[in-house]
Design a protein that fits this description.
The protein is mainly alpha-helical. It has helices spanning about 1-30, 35-40, 45-50, 70-85.
């Protein structure tokens, strides 16, 4: 009886080790590259997303300016003022 219990226990331990190694091998082969990238490199941005959600967004144009639209007359006035100031 004692030998039977020990043999069942040993068998269960061997099966557990075998399935654990197989699970680790499958997990290693099926890496999701997007999730890995986010986990490694976007740690700081994930915490900042919640904070930035409540703030009003500042839109930056492709010329790296915070002005999205300016009227032609106002623009000409500003440029003439800056040129006359030289």
């Amino acid at each position: 009886m004692k030998l039977l219990v020990i043999s069942i226990f040993v068998f269960l331990v061997i099966m557990y080790v075998y399935t654990y190694k197989r699970y680790k091998k499958n997990k290693k082969n099926n890496i999701n590259t997007v999730d890995e990238f986010r986990r490694k490199y976007l740690k700081k941005n994930v915490s900042n997303e919640n904070q930035d959600a409540n703030k009003a967004g500042n839109y930056i144009t492709k010329y790296n300016s915070s002005i999205d639209y300016i009227e032609k007359d106002a623009f000409l006035k500003e440029t003439s003022d800056s040129q006359s100031g030289r």
